[in-house]
Specification:
The protein is mainly alpha-helical and 125 residues long. It has 3 helices and 2 strands; from the N terminus they run αβαβα.
Length: 125
């Protein structure tokens, strides 16, 4: 029943997006010393949502306009100042992205918890 409510769908999408951002950040950190590796990143959930609402990322099929089969925006390459071995990952930038993803995930959980509190109040539990 509660899955059809927009607030729960939005918080779930936000949590999935934050998880995808965190996974990319972890992969970038793991390959910080790999020669020739180029980091990847996702825009924030707010930017992704805004683009989808303006029609920029409306997908008609999987992988159309950079949207994958799971409905998430596909990662783009990030170019930091390359190291002598060709690696273009900034550890400091990845740490900041990790914190942003953690905050985005915490925000999604707070929205979900608030939605459940409202549901409980409406039901009278």
């Amino acid at each position: 029943m509660y899955q059809s409510l927009d607030i729960f769908q939005t918080s779930g999408a936000m949590a999935r997006h934050a998880g995808a951002r965190q996974a990319l950040t972890a992969a970038n950190m793991a390959n910080a010393d790999t020669p020739g590796y180029v980091g990847r990143s996702l825009p924030s959930f707010q930017d992704s949502y805004r683009m989808s609402q303006t029609g920029v990322l409306r997908a008609t099929r999987p992988a159309h306009f950079g949207v994958g089969p799971d409905g998430l925006v596909q990662p783009s390459e990030t170019r930091a100042e390359p190291a002598p071995n060709g690696n273009a990952v900034s550890v400091e930038l990845e740490m900041l992205r990790s914190v942003e993803a953690q905050r985005e995930h915490s925000r999604a959980l707070a929205i979900y918890r608030h939605g459940m509190t409202v549901m409980r109040a409406v039901i009278g539990a």
